[in-house]
Each structure stands twice: as structure tokens, then as C-alpha cells.
Amino acid sequence: MKIKVLTLFPDIYDSLRYGVLGKALDKGVFSVEVSNIRDYSADKHKRCDDYPYGGGAGMLMTPQPLHDAITAADPERKACRIYLSPKGEPLSQSIVGRLSQFDELVLINGSYEGIDQRIIDLDVDREISVGDYVLSTGDYASLILIDTVARYIPGVLGSSESTIEESFSDGLLEYPQYTRPAEFMGLCVPDVLLNGNHAEIEKWRKRQSLAITKERRPDLLE
């Protein structure tokens, strides 16, 4: 998979060099290409923002640099173009799974008070939100999206089972996990996990997932 990122702040993506994603990028399992939107500005000062029509606080990203950057990244319109926005559809594990099937993604990051609506109308396929809050730049949302999607790319994680068993993979929150030692500061690992009966372990994990989901995210059970 190729992920192309359009941003005003390319250095933010240096964090992708670390951990499992960094190893996968070094091996060429997938790629992330970061482009600076300012490089496409026709303004002599490379400005990419202006005051919004109708007034209001803050500045808005102008359409010309964004449109040219998007066109350069995806000239034949083969990629799924995503604008990270608090107005978008909430990111979910099912959406992540679908996005991982694309060969190319283009992530469009707004800053300031957002981007000109005409870019959304002309150039965006999907608007996606990572939560009901506002970030100073969409780049932090893009990092979340890259991380979640990359986990579904074969070769990124050590085991394919990791994405199957974790939270939200079956619509529920994940069950409690334990490792050695069997007793720590008076707290013991549940006996069912020590007896080697995999059928009983599976039943226990399912009950735990249901109980935790009911307590913390009852909306998922609906």
C-alpha cells in the first residue's frame, strides 16, 4: 500500500520511523510519502491561508495549493482521498478494514480553521473523524489513521492474529490480558487461563469482553 500525505507540517511524520511501523517502512512493506502543501502555492510568499468570507475567527486554507497538491499526488484519481475532519464519519475498525483494501490512500490535512469547502466538493472522497474533539491540525488524526490501517497490511505485525483478537475486531472491547508471573503483589492470574483448556478460555474471554463492553461502551452492543 502507498499512503500519500498532504500537510503543512511534514516533520510531524518523523514519528513513523519508530516501532513496528518504522520496521515495516524500512522493509518496504508499505510506504508513506509526505508532501508539503506550501510547495504548490502560487503565492510568491507561499501562503496557504486567508480570511474566511462572511467573517469569523481564524484563517482558512485556500483552495489553489490544496487542489494542485492533491492532483499531483493522485493525477489519475485512483486513490481513496480522505480529508481528516471533525465533521467526518467516526473512524471505526470496520472502516479501517475497508480502507486497508485500497492500493493507495491520499490523506488531506487541514490546519487553522479548516479548508475551503470547494476542495471537499471537488477533490475529497471521504471525510473521517477520529473523535468528537478538535485538533490544532489534522496531521495528528492522520497519524492515527496510518497506524490503524497499517496494522492490517500483511507483514506489518508479527502475527495476523493480533488484528483478529484485539478490541473492536468483533464489535466488543478486548478481554483482560495477563502474562508472567502468575501472582504479582497479591493479584493472581485467573485459574481458567492456566489450565490449558482452550474451549473454556475462549468462553471466559467472551464473557469478559461482553461484561467490559456493557459497562464501558454499551452503545457497541446496540
Explain what this protein looks like in three dimensions:
It is a single chain. The chain has 222 residues and is α/β, with parallel strands linked by helices. It is 33% helix and 18% strand. It has eight helices and nine strands. The chain has helices spanning 19-27, 63-73, 93-99, 117-123, 139-150, 161-165, 198-216, 218-221; strands at 2-7, 31-36, 49-50, 60-61, 80-90, 104-109, 126-129, 183-184, 187-188. The chain has a five-stranded parallel β-sheet. Strand 8 (183-184) and strand 9 form a beta hairpin. Helix 2 packs parallel to helix 4. The chain is elongated and about 70 Å long. The mean pLDDT is 94.
For this entry, give a set of tags.
18% strand; alpha/beta; two-stranded antiparallel sheet; five-stranded parallel β-sheet; elongated; 33% helix; single chain; 222 residues
Task: Note the gap between the termini.
Answer: 34 Å
Total of DSSP H or I helical runs spanning 4+ residues: 8
Pattern of helices and strands:
EHEEEHEHEHEHHEEHH
Mean pLDDT across all amino acids: 94
Q: Biggest sheet, in brief?
A: 5 strands, parallel
Residues in helices, as a percent range? 25-40%
Poorly predicted runs: none
Q: Which structural class should the secondary elements be placed in?
A: alpha/beta
Shape: elongated
The radius of gyration is 21 Å
Secondary structure: number of strands: 9
Short description:
The protein is α/β, with parallel strands linked by helices and 222 residues long.
Secondary structure layout:
Elements lengths: L1 E6 L11 H9 L3 E6 L12 E2 L9 E2 L1 H11 L6 E11 L2 H7 L4 E6 L7 H7 L2 E4 L9 H12 L10 H5 L17 E2 L2 E2 L9 H19 L1 H4 L1
Parallel strand pairs: 1-2, 1-6, 5-6, 5-7
Antiparallel strand pairs: 3-4, 8-9
Helix pairs in contact: 2-4
